[in-house]
Structure formats: structure tokens, C-alpha cells
Design a protein that fits this description.
Distance between the termini of chain B: 40 Å
Oligomer: heterodimer
Structural class of chain A: mainly beta
Mean pLDDT of chain A: 97
Shape of chain A: globular
Shape of chain B: globular
Order of helices and strands of chain B: EEEEEEEEEEE
Helix content of chain A: under 10%
Strand content of chain A: over 45%
Strand content of chain B: over 45%
Number of helices of chain B: 0
Distance between the termini of chain A: 36 Å
Radius of gyration of chain A: 13 Å
Number of strands of chain B: 11
Low-confidence stretches of chain A: none
Low-confidence stretches of chain B: none
């Protein structure tokens, strides 16, 4: 199974800050990676797929990069509605696996 | 609009069975693979199962293989999860999700999610 490791597990940031979250795969997944946002008590929302493609309707302040084993999600200017938990997911092979999550909190 | 509505959750004793349903609307259901993903209390996301758009292919997480069965009825725009031999560690919110790409079983991204249904396994 491919293990997905996210760092940090939590980050405190202020509105307007640039935030970067990292996801590392235990083996190469090419660009088969997605990022999701989840707010408390809500279902996850797809933000990025194939590592860097922005899902329709997602603000352009979100961007993804990377390939192989190392990936990043960047929020260029954090907005109040962005405080949430973010998960990466590899789509390279079964079983599909998620990272442990990164909680973005208000500083 | 595109919508997924899960149902069937509840409280069940260990070893018993439960069946979840997910009713889809707002898109051509028969053209998309469908997923079940769960989230234990205060834990992260765990993929459970996927079924191809035509029902011919399925895959499962090792933790549920042999106990859970995913199926679909394209005439009813509904996907199911039959859960047998439930364990306390199956306690979670179960989400139904839709594949992002039409008529494919090679892109595994979930672009629409239901609100979830809660399964509690407890004696």
C-alpha cells in the first residue's frame, strides 16, 4: 500500500498569509494526486486533481505542484473561509489512500 | 444540481449487518464510478470501496474486504454498501462520492460528496 504523509499536521496562520502544505508518498504516484478541503461537520471538497489541476469553481489562490513522491498545496493569501483541514489522496493504485490531514487554524 | 444523499446509518451491534444507500440526482449516474469513503470520529478519511460506472469492476480497502459489498442499480440512480460482520472499528461517518471523470475507471478523484450517514457499532 502507498502511505501518504502530510506535514505539518497543523499550522497557525493569519488572514493574508501564504500557507504551504506538503504531502509525501511512500512510493512514486506520478501526478496521480488530489487535494481536498474539509470543514468541521461537512463533507470534503475536491480542490486539486492530477497534482496541479484546479477543480472548477475553486479560487485561484489554491495551487498544487509536485510529481513522483513530493507534492505541495499552496494557499497564496489565506482567507477566513480557508480555515479547515486539508487532505491529500493518491489515485495511482489501489487501495486509494489519504494523508492524515493538515489543520489550518487561525493565529 | 448534482446531489448525493446517503441513508441507512444507525446503531448496530458487533457482528451484525447494515446496508447503506446513496441516491444520486442531477447527473447521468450510469456514466460515473462511485465511491464510499468513511471517517471515524475525530479521525481522517479512509477510502472504503469503488464501483465502476457499469458495475463490472469493484475494489475494496483491505480493512473491509470480504465483509462489505458495493453495488449499484443504474435504473434507480443508487449505489449501495452492504456491511456484514460489523466491528466496533467500523464506527464512522460514511460518505458516498462521485467520480470526477465520465465513463472511466482509471481516474480516481471524488468531485461530489454526500453529507454522510453515521454508523455506530456498539454493544
Amino acid at each position: 500500500d502507498i502511505q501518504m504523509t502530510q506535514s505539518p499536521s497543523s499550522v497557525s496562520a493569519s488572514v493574508g498569509d501564504r500557507v504551504t502544505i506538503t504531502c509525501r508518498a511512500s512510493q512514486g504516484v506520478s501526478s496521480w494526486l488530489a487535494w481536498y478541503q474539509q470543514k468541521p461537520g461537512k463533507a470534503p471538497k475536491l480542490l486539486i486533481y492530477t497534482a496541479s489541476s484546479l477543480q472548477s469553481g475553486v479560487p485561484s489562490r489554491f495551487s498544487g505542484s509536485g510529481s513522483g513522491t513530493d507534492f505541495t498545496l499552496t494557499i497564496s493569501s489565506l482567507q477566513p473561509e480557508d480555515f479547515a483541514t486539508y487532505y491529500c489522496q493518491q489515485a495511482h493504485s489501489f487501495p486509494l489512500t489519504f494523508g492524515g490531514g493538515t489543520k489550518v487554524e487561525i493565529k | 444540481q448534482v446531489q448525493l444523499v446517503e441513508s441507512g446509518g444507525g446503531v448496530v451491534q458487533p457482528g451484525r449487518s447494515l446496508s447503506l444507500s446513496c441516491a444520486a440526482s442531477g447527473f447521468t449516474f450510469s456514466s460515473y464510478a462511485m465511491y464510499w469513503v468513511r471517517q471515524a470520529p475525530d479521525k481522517g478519511l479512509e477510502w472504503v470501496a469503488v464501483i465502476s460506472y457499469d458495475g463490472s469492476k469493484t475494489h475494496y480497502a483491505d480493512s473491509v474486504k470480504g465483509r462489505f459489498t458495493i453495488s449499484r442499480d443504474n435504473s434507480k440512480d443508487t449505489v449501495y454498501l452492504q456491511m456484514n460482520s460489523l466491528r466496533t472499528e467500523d464506527t464512522a461517518v460514511f460518505y458516498c462520492a462521485k467520480e470526477s471523470t465520465v465513463t472511466t475507471y482509471s481516474y480516481f478523484y471524488m468531485d461530489v460528496w454526500g453529507k454522510g450517514t453515521t454508523v455506530t457499532v456498539s454493544s
